[in-house]
Amino acid sequence: MKYFPFLTVSILLYCSDSPLYGQLSYPVPSGVYCSCGPTLATGQGSVAPAIAAKPFVKGILVRIEWDLLEPTDNNFNWVQLDTQIARAKSYGKKVALGIVNGKGAPGWLYAIAGVQPVVYNNGADTIPLPWDTAYLRQWQELIVEAGRRYLNDTTITLVHMTNSSFNGFEFQLPPEGLVNWSLFQYTEQKIIDSWKTVITSFGAAFPHHYLDNDFHPVFLISSSSSTPADSVYTFARGKIGQRYGALAAWWTQNNVNNYPFNIRGFSTRLRKVLLPCNSPKTVQMTQPRLGREACPELYLRLSLTALVIGKYGIRIF
What we know:
This protein has one domain (7-316): TIM Barrel (Alpha-Beta Barrel), CATH 3.20.20. 32% of the residues lie in helices and 18% in strands. The protein has helices spanning 49-52, 66-69, 79-90, 108-111, 133-150, 188-205, 227-240, 253-258, 263-270, 296-309, and strands at 7-11, 32-35, 57-65, 94-100, 117-120, 125-128, 156-160, 210-214, 244-247, 275-279, 313-316. The chain is globular, with a radius of gyration of 18 Å.
């Protein structure tokens, strides 16, 4: 996952769909959320005191890898996540929760659970095959356990639904230059069905929280199809209803220009969704700066907030 500084501005609007799982009894995420660093085994936490103490910050994105939560099969360790939630609460802040999958999946999946690995970068990186049934069974078990533990936790306002992917947080898979996906019999329907299984599990495990998932092309190339994203979004809206929004994380002007479902087209089709506009904060960034044409109503707001938040990224709901 990319951890360099960035800005994400998210507008959260909801349609009048009736949710299939639970009532809207928990608060809608709103205000400025810090997209601070991940929670790591080294003790680094997502809730940065210097940011959490700022009165205009309303919440924190807490990212934590699956292998920290389930270091061995059916042995769940919630200490680090509980600590971050409690810390956010002590500052009067809310939490957007993201359990990082992909390379953040535990190694025992392959040795003990029989999950088919996707290995790339000369063996340096491994993710579970997203449509592998053994993987989906194990991932659903983790989702169920997380739902049991945090079902009544109203400090958490938003849960990011994640799946096995390139960085474990977003939609895209490792590019075909790194993985020969024909060896895994990749089809669009397989990735769509994988996401449908994951979304169904999250929706049932978190029946009162707001939920979203990221959308990118499955393969970050200009010819990549928008069918998986369109199908997954339609399914999620039907399953979860007004508690659901679509997240387009890390979109820049480059995405707008080069991908078949760009921000402008995606927002036109999806309309009332969680749709962020992203912009790099510093001149050291190599990605193109977000252009006014991509998200004109937020362009100035982004630039001004960048001067206030410091080194961390932000999300505005």
